[in-house]
Amino acid sequence: MxxxxxxxxxxxxxxxxxxxxxxxxxGITGVGPLRHPVPGxxxxxxxxxxxxxxxxxxxxxxxxxxxxxxxxxxxLDLAEHRVVAIVGTGLRELAAxxxxxxxxxxxxxxxxxxxxxxxxMTIANACSAGGHAxxxxxxxxxxxxxxxxxxxAADVMTASMLAMIGRVAEQPSDQVxxxxxxxxxxxxxxxxxxxxxxxxxxxxxxxxxxxxxxLSCDAFHETAPDINGxxxxxxxxxxxxxxxxxxxxxxxxHGTGTALNDPTECEALRRSVIAYGGNPLITGIxxxxxxxxxxxxxxxxDVALRCMSGGEVPAVAGLREVLPEGADLxxxxxxxxxxxxxxxxxxxxxxxxxxxxxxxxxx
Length: 363
Known about the structure:
Layout: E1 3-12, E2 15-16, H1 17-26, E3 32-33, E4 46-47, H2 59-74, E5 83-88, H3 94-98, E6 120-123, H4 129-142, E7 148-155, H5 159-167, E8 191-198, E9 208-217, H6 227-241, E10 250-252, H7 261-272, E11 281-283, H8 286-289, H9 296-310, E12 312-313, E13 337-338, E14 343-350, E15 354-362
Parallel strand pairs: 5-6, 5-7, 10-11, 10-14
Antiparallel strand pairs: 1-2, 1-8, 1-9, 3-4, 7-8, 9-15, 12-13, 14-15
């Protein structure tokens, strides 16, 4: 039994979902000078900021606009349907806490950011939080606990995360360069996203089938990825969905442009997809929009839906020379690929080995 995605809304440094996708196809990136007022040297000079956003604002304010748009696009009547909201986030409202601006603790749970929905749950599962929220949403509509679930995600830059990524980089990164031989490391991206998940009998818009999200939590290391945990999540997604890796057209990779993640992700794709006859196109969006933390998985969902409907797959922004570990993979480089994928794998991996791998299929 599959759930459906009825609507998707996205906000990145490049604009809304439509403008973000258009920029991805053109190879435009949103990286710019770091605007966050971090005291002292942190070895980070750049970031992917939303133009005009105040640095003392709330992540929830970004989320609220996405939720409102997604509800409207889904044509979901909150008075007639049982609707729950699940918000995935890496950092909650840590930026407001750091700056002493959090006057209402309820903001930590994003309840005020999901207008009209009484039951709001928050999942703080690092950079795979949006994927975990998708999995729970599918469970809820399939078991009848809700008619529809609004899955949201939001994160903004924080001083502590900026300091952390600065400590693990030898030199300041100029841009996220996923799968590049000389990738300099990750940079943070601000943004939010929301999708509406419904049951298979939904009478409204149907953008794609949400087949399954494979999950794993290996606790291998605080930050380093573990290939076995990632492969378990990939393998579970295919086994539970009844699909085969050879039929996958596209992988939207996690692709953080870091020393450990990119080679590990390449090898995981080789073990769990290529080894079973698959040869999908592979792309990633963090070179253009930065690492959106808990919003990364839902940003991938929005881009995947546009690849399905538009028949084009954007190239990996910032990729100049593919790393040796990915030389035999079908990574989209330099220019978009003309292709309308029908089965898409979406990767999201978080600190502590909280992994979520989602399969989407054209409706």
